[in-house]
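Before relying on records like the one below, remember that each one covers exactly one chain. Contacts with other chains, cofactors or solvent are not represented anywhere in the record.
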Amino acid sequence: MRRQELKIQLKTPEQIEKMRAAGLVVAAALDAMRAAVAPGVSTADLDAIAEKTIRDAGAVPSFKGYHGFPASICASVNEQVVHGIPSAGQVLREGDLISLDCGAILDGWHGDSAITVGVGETDPALLRMAEVAEDAMWAGIAAAARGVANGRGRLTDISFNIERSIRKAGRYGIVDGYGGHGIGTEMHQDPHVLNHGKPGRGIRLEVGLALAIEPMITMGSPRTAELEDGWTVVTRDGSRAAHVEHTMALLADGVWVTTAPDGGRARLGELVTARQP
């Protein structure tokens, strides 16, 4: 994880503002999909909603065509962890749990975010798992903000705080091998951000660094498998999974969660930059 082995793209404040514009497009697409999630709706329907929202904003879906991926979103239902391919044949049912992952490119800059929501009346334990994942994501983002402010932050401080938040909440599987990533003029950049690990390791957290933070947890084992479609990742034991994500950027006066409509202020308070959304 030494910096000279990685290609780290540090952004200027002006470039981060461009990422913010892309992030708001992603937020709008996720909001539109969240409102549409209901029994009887297909994941292809949700994909169409997201693509229209993104293109109407003058942006381009990040995912469509990425290494051959055929859709504008990843829609992962129940035991599907990430990278589920939307399909007209996959129709949501009451009690399902769905992760919606969405990315957009605007003016050459990326935003990437994901939510997990229940379909109709959903088992409270599943909704709690999604909440645990979200709390862990914010714990990781807060750790990054504190680390850049005190000048001592390292990449795995994020990983450590994500894991600690999850472990405190209960017995959940933390999916291994998948995690967050750098983001900017490409959707996936160095560094890779694990969702577990010891603190104080990896690159320094510094102004201009932009990362997508994305915990993935399960109700059972953390072990996963990839389906024959070459994309969809599922839990090996069939347990339900949750995946959430936000893009964040570090500035001199705080963190900016570029895919959160309020920039992250409701969850992070004064850790958020004073720059206007």
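The longest helix spans residues 124-150.
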